[in-house]
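Researcher: Good morning. I'm working through a list of sequences from a screen, and I'd like to move beyond sequence-only analysis. For each chain I'm collecting a predicted structure so we can compare shapes side by side. This is the next one on the list. No need for commentary yet; just the structure.
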Amino acid sequence: MKRRMKATIAYDGTNFSGYQVQPKQRTVQQEIEKVLTKMHKGEIVHVTASGRTDARVHATGQVIHFDTTLSIPLDRYARALNVQLPRDIRVVNIEEVSDDFHARYSVHGKRYRYIWSCEDVQNPFRRFYATPTNGVKPDVKAMEEAAQYILGTHDFSCFCAANTSVQDKVRTVSFLAFEWHGEELNMVIEGNGFLYNMVRIIAGTLWEVGIAKRQPCELAEIIASLDRGNAGKTASPQGLYLENVHYED
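Model: Good morning. C-alpha cells for this chain:
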C-alpha cells in the first residue's frame, strides 16, 4: 500500500548545482532520490519539490513529497533518511498526507530571506551564507520606500530572468521588510509565487536604491516597463534562502 509523504527539508546549497536533477551534476533532488531508491531495494522513487533552487542557494524550509511502499513508522522515517543522506541535507520534519497533496501545485505562498554581510571584513565562516558588501551599509529607509512599489499584484516581467519559459508573470508580493541582525542586513519577502531569479533581482535592485544608484520612485517605472533590462543586477546566490512554504489547511 502506497503512502504519500510530505517532508520539510533543509540544505546547504554551497556544494550543489541546484535542487533539480542535472546530468553529471550534484543536486539535492539526486541525493534524496538516491537514498530513497536504496531504501526501496532498487525501486526508483521520484520526489517533487515546491520549486527548484539554483546553485549555491540554500533552504531552511523546502518542501517535497514522494510516494512510498515502506511501512516504516512515521516517527522513524526522518531518521531513516537522515542517517543515509549527506550532511548538507537534513529532513527536518515528515508527515503522511492525502494522495491529492502536491508539493508544487498545492503551494499557497512562500517566504524567502536574502542576507547581505555589511561588515568591513566579512567573517570567513559566513562567506558561503551571506553576500559581502565590503563594509558598505545601505540606506535602508530608501530601500523600504522602494519596496512599497513592489507590494501587491503586478506583472513582474522586469524581475524575471530573460530565459524563462513562463508566460504568466503576474504574482502577488504580500510582505517585504528589512531586518538588521548584527552587521548583516536581511530582506524578508513573501508572496504567492516567485518567478525564476525574481527574489535575487529584487534584492539586487533594492540594493542599488540603498547605495543611491537609483531613487525609490524608479521602482514604479521599472515594474510598469515589464523590461528585465531596466531592473538591477541579479544578487549573488549564496545570500538567498528558501525559508518557508505555506499550504492551505
